[in-house]
């Protein structure tokens, strides 16, 4: 499937049209950003790893009945996805208190929450993705009450599944961000899971050492991000245990061949 014109470019991905009006190609960039785009860098191989990890998670979620926008992975950096109308809300799921919530509320970092906490942020970089309440979402027609109820049920199912999936490979799912979109088919509209699920959008800690295996390594200058993302992929069974060639090395090899 060939890429058409650029539909949208975000911080970590580019969306392109295809010959099929209902499908798009999603390209994973190597760009890394933090603190609402105030901190930026390019980390070679990050897009490759996020592409593979997100594909793995979304495929597994499909198997338990969570509909999402992924059709299939095209190559190391691209996926074919269904075109959806994104609901302009970031749904933040917290199992352990860390990051912004600890600063806002004075909660001790690492506090295990009694039950999953769901927060809403308006998707608007210019405003700094501010926290909003359900009342705001309904008042300004960002989503209907029925859509919100469906999304919340899906989120609880996703969270339960992902906690188990990561715990099984020695990783604690601390918190994560989800996005949803409206898919129109045969005159009907349904809400499905969209965007990516990767170490860019999740906080993942080693279950024994609490070592950060996510984008906090970039945010907090904790060391190279790629080994951490590679470790997540390896534990999920995406990369072979014995492999000496990482996703980054493959990218570099292809770059060298092109130059020759």
Features:
seven-stranded antiparallel β-sheet; 7 helices; single chain; 31% helix; five-stranded antiparallel β-sheet; globular; 14 strands; disordered C terminus; Phosphorylase Kinase, domain 1; alpha+beta; 260 residues; D-amino Acid Aminotransferase, Chain A, domain 1
Outline the structure in words.
The protein is an alpha+beta fold. It folds into two domains: 6-84 and 225-249, Phosphorylase Kinase, domain 1 (2-Layer Sandwich); 86-206, ATP-grasp fold, B domain (D-amino Acid Aminotransferase, Chain A, domain 1, 2-Layer Sandwich). It has helices at residues 46-63, 100-105, 134-139, 145-167, 216-219, 225-235, 247-259, and strands spanning 6-9, 13-17, 23-28, 31-34, 39-42, 70-73, 78-82, 85-86, 89-97, 111-122, 131-132, 171-185, 188-194, 202-206.
Fold blueprint:
Layout: E1 6-9, E2 13-17, E3 23-28, E4 31-34, E5 39-42, H1 46-63, E6 70-73, E7 78-82, E8 85-86, E9 89-97, H2 100-105, E10 111-122, E11 131-132, H3 134-139, H4 145-167, E12 171-185, E13 188-194, E14 202-206, H5 216-219, H6 225-235, H7 247-259
Antiparallel strand pairs: 1-2, 2-3, 3-7, 4-5, 6-7, 8-12, 9-10, 9-12, 10-11, 12-13, 12-14
Q: What's the shape? A: globular
CATH architecture assignment name of the largest domain: 2-Layer Sandwich
Q: Structural class of the secondary structure composition? A: alpha+beta
The CATH superfamily name of the largest domain is ATP-grasp fold, B domain
- Please tell me how large the radius of gyration is: 18 Å
Question: What's the main sheet like?
Answer: 7 strands, antiparallel
Number of domains: 2
Tell me the distance between the termini. 27 Å
Strands, count: 14
- The first-level CATH class of the largest domain is given as Alpha Beta
Average pLDDT value?
91
